[in-house]
């Protein structure tokens, strides 16, 4: 299976591409914005596609034309304003979904926010609410398609060393999780068709990642 990782230059994206390239049955294609970002992925043996997520659907579709699955793990980041949140986390996600359909790819994994319910939008701090709203509507758009989707809702992200153990489900109890463990969870999700049509939250826990994902 060849996987287009959108937002590959992000921290989760880099971990995910590394996991994929170390596997025997998956291959990564890293979608990045700048040529100077390509060396990291080329050293891993991954293909690259230079595409601006704020560009056209056709450009993203061209990057997806030779893959079997798409993972959206792009994000505007905490230091950007509401404009970038809309353009990347909402518009970029929706364009990627539409490009995936246009390219004839069925499998799609969305990396979302921990809680994207309407209640979460209403209860979020003013500075965070636009991000939750963007993720909410991107998730809803995906669920309205006929794609074989999975939505992964990570808890509070850290750069701690991975444990390889998580808790998954929809308990709503916020916890932290290393980015590397999130990437491993996405990797396991791609390999497990039982996750299709489902969404789940992931935080640190006591269950090995593969076992946890199989329980979804």
TrEMBL record:
Coiled coil: none annotated. It holds the Pfam family NAD_binding_10. Residues 7-192 form the NAD(P)-binding domain. InterPro entries: NAD(P)-bd_dom (IPR016040). It comes from the Bacteria. This is SDR family oxidoreductase. It comes from Allobacillus halotolerans.
């Amino acid at each position: 299976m060849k996987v287009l990782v959108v937002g590959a230059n992000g921290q989760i994206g880099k971990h995910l591409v590394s996991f994929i390239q170390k596997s025997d049955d998956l291959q990564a294609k890293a979608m990045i914005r700048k040529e100077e970002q390509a060396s990291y992925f080329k050293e891993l043996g991954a293909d690259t596609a230079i595409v601006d997520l704020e560009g056209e659907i056709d450009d993203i579709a061209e990057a997806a034309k030779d893959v079997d699955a798409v993972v959206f793990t792009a994000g505007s980041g905490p230091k950007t304003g509401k404009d970038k949140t809309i353009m990347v986390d909402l518009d970029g996600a929706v364009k990627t979904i539409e490009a995936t359909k246009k390219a004839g790819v069925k499998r799609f994994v969305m990396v979302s926010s921990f809680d994207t319910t309407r209640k979460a939008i209403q209860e979020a701090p003013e500075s965070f609410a636009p991000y939750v709203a963007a993720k909410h509507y991107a998730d809803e758009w995906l669920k309205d398609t006929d794609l074989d989707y999975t939505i992964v809702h990570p808890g509070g992200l850290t750069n701690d060393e991975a444990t390889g153990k998580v808790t998954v489900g929809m308990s709503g109890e916020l916890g932290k999780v290393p980015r590397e463990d999130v990437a491993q969870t996405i990797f396991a999700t791609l390999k497990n068709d039982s996750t299709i049509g489902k969404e789940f939250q992931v935080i640190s826990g006591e269950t090995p990642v593969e076992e946890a994902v199989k329980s979804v």
